[in-house]
Amino acid sequence: MKLDVLSQFSSRAIRFAAMGLMAVVLTACSGMNLFGPPKIKEEPIVPAQTLYQGALDDMDRQYYQTAITKLEKLERQHPRDPLTEKGKLMQVYANYRIGRFDEAILASDRYLALYPSSSEVPYVLWLKGTAYFAQIKDITRDQQLSRDAIDTYNLLINNYPRSEHAVDARDKLLVAYDQLAGKEMSVGRYYQGNGQYAAAINRFREVVERWQTSTHIEEALYRLTETYLLLGLTTEAKSAAAVLGHNYPASDWYKRAFELLGKQGLAPELNSGSWLAGVRA
Questions:
Q1: Percent of the chain beyond pLDDT 70?
Q2: What is the mean pLDDT of residues 192-203?
Q3: pTM beyond cutoff 0.85
Q4: Taking each helix axis from N to C terminus, what angle separates 164-193 and 121-133, rounded to the nearest 10 degrees?
């Protein structure tokens, strides 16, 4: 009888101990969020003016990354505050200043989509175009960035021709044009060296017709003279040399073209039926 009572007491004690242990385990698991998603810690709300002024102070000290963090928080916590528009503009500039050009381009696109009538649009277009421009590689690389810069600068110039930023955009356009022309020349010389004369002529012609303000125009006209002669198209060769001499009479490229024709008893002469007659200044 006594043994039965002790046995029952021991069983109850074990069950209570097991239940207590389970409660402890569950409490611990609950604290570690093993049975549900982790609790999201709420971000303390900072006044919009405080975030904006803090970002301005950071930018004055050239702490652009910390300024971007504050501006992103301003956008996140106060999406409808008037300061948010200014903050988005500052994000474009700050990303550009630290060389995060892709982020600057994305930030400019967001700003232009949200505030297409803003007085700051010319500036944002200039920043976007210059972010492309800053990434332009040498002429042996793909020139998509040059094309993107040209498109953006032209958008700025065509829509805001009196903007102070349009002046700088025009100057940078010449460099971007030169990049594209240089790429065409590089490919054209390759084709010419491999005996692919028709393909080479197409590249040089592209430079003459599209990139007349580039520094490659004189060589392009000489290469046309040279390549037409290689194909036996003397009339076109003389026309290319004539256009070169008319526009750049003191050019070394013209002297070379003149001598090249002279070796075959030819002289520069523009054929009025040639496509080159249309590009003569």
A1: 83
A2: 96
A3: no
A4: 30
Burial of 68 (0-12, 13-18, 19+ CB in 10 A): buried
**Using CA atoms, how far apart are residues 84 and 88, in angstroms rounded to an integer?**
6
Which residues form the domain of 86? 46-115
| In a domain? residue 28 | no
Q: Alpha-carbon distance 12 to 29, whole Å?
A: 26
Tokens describing residue 101 = 């050009």
Asked if residue 19 belongs to a domain, the reply is: no
Q: Is residue 261 part of a domain?
A: yes
207 and 221 in a single domain? The answer is: no
The answer to whether residues 218 and 199 touch, using CB atoms and an 8 Å cutoff, is no
Same-domain check for residues 139 and 197 = yes
Judgement on whether residues 127 and 101 belong to the same structural domain of the protein:
no
Q: The CATH number of the domain where 148 resides is what?
A: 1.25.40.10
Percent of the chain at pLDDT exceeding 90: 72
Exposure class string for 171-200: b at 16+ Cβ within 10 A, else e? ebbeebbbbbbbbbbebbeebbeeeebeeb
Do residues 104 and 131 share a domain? Answer: no
Q: Quick one: pLDDT band at residue 235, thresholds 50, 70, 90?
A: very high
pLDDT at 6: 42
> pLDDT tens across 201-225, in order?
999 999 999 988 899 999 999 999 9
- Is-contact 100 85, C-beta < 8 A? no
Helix axes 252-262, 234-247, angle to 10 degrees: 150
Instruction: Tell me if 196 is assigned to some domain.
Output: yes
Q: Hey, CA dihedral for 48, 49, 50, 54, is it positive or negative?
A: positive
What pLDDT, in 10s, does the model give residues 244-281? 999 999 999 999 999 999 999 999 999 999 999 988 55
Q: How many residues does the chain have?
A: 281
Say yes or no: 59 and 104 in one domain.
yes
